[in-house]
Design goal:
The chain has two domains: about 5-130, Impact, N-terminal domain (Ribosomal Protein S5, domain 2), CATH 3.30.230.30; about 135-195, 2-Layer Sandwich (Alpha-Beta Plaits), CATH 3.30.70. It contains five helices and eleven strands, in the order βββαββαβαββαββαβ. Strands 2-3-6-4-5 form a five-stranded antiparallel β-sheet, with helices on both faces. A hairpin with an 8-residue loop joins β4 (about 50-55) and β5. Helices cover about 30% and strands about 35% of the residues. It is an alpha+beta fold.
């Protein structure tokens, strides 16, 4: 799976359209549980809001871990347009929540879709992004004499050693950037045991 961009921090954006106020938050959200927690926080903060619509992608941009809600707006006018913006931008691990205070002028279904879409698009413009590097968990097993070689090789491929266990042989629990795994395997000495962990 290729690397992708994620929000570096929480951001807030507000705009008014025909007297309706649209308050938009963007949160980094690696899991559905984190996304739901952000939603609960905003719901508690604005109990008097007419609509609190949301969309999230918990994982890579093409992940199946996603959700959306129109929260009482006409079907398809809020959550779906918001999610479409996120998917089009190719951003992952993200939650966007838009709180709407009705201003007395109806926007119509097209107007609502444009308002929710633009709220997300404008909020993303001010959201700093960082690259999320996909990591693959691996386990290595080698004799003591090969440990230094293994550590140097892991370092050269930007791998992280999570745990090292010294028994009859040295056992290393690691994470390596997915894009580096094939080359790492090619350079690994044949007598070193490698186990790729299923995610």
């Amino acid at each position: 799976m290729p690397n992708y961009m994620i929000p570096a921090e929480n951001t807030f954006y507000e705009q008014s359209i025909k007297r309706s106020r649209f308050l938009t938050w963007i949160y980094p959200s690696a899991t559905p549980e984190i996304a739901k927690q952000h939603l609960r926080t905003v719901q508690q903060q604005y109990p008097d809001a007419r609509h609190i619509c949301w969309a999230w992608i918990a994982g890579a941009p093409n992940s199946s871990h996603l959700g959306m809600s129109d929260d009482g707006e006409p079907s398809g006018t809020a959550g779906k347009p918001m999610l479409n913006v996120l998917q089009h931008k190719g951003i992952g691990e993200i939650t966007v929540i838009v709180v709407r205070y009705f201003g007395g002028i109806k926007l119509g279904t097209g107007g609502l879709s444009r308002a929710y879409s633009s709220s997300v698009s404008e909020a993303l413009k001010i959201t700093p992004l960082i690259q999320c590097v996909q990591m693959q968990p691996i386990h290595l097993r080698c004799i003591y004499a090969e440990e230094d070689y293994i550590r140097r090789l892991l370092n050269s491929h930007a791998a992280i050693i999570d745990h090292c266990d010294y028994q009859e042989k040295v056992q290393l629990a690691c994470q390596i950037p997915t894009e580096n795994l094939a080359k790492f395997q090619q350079q690994l000495a044949f007598n070193i045991e490698l186990k790729i962990i299923d995610l």
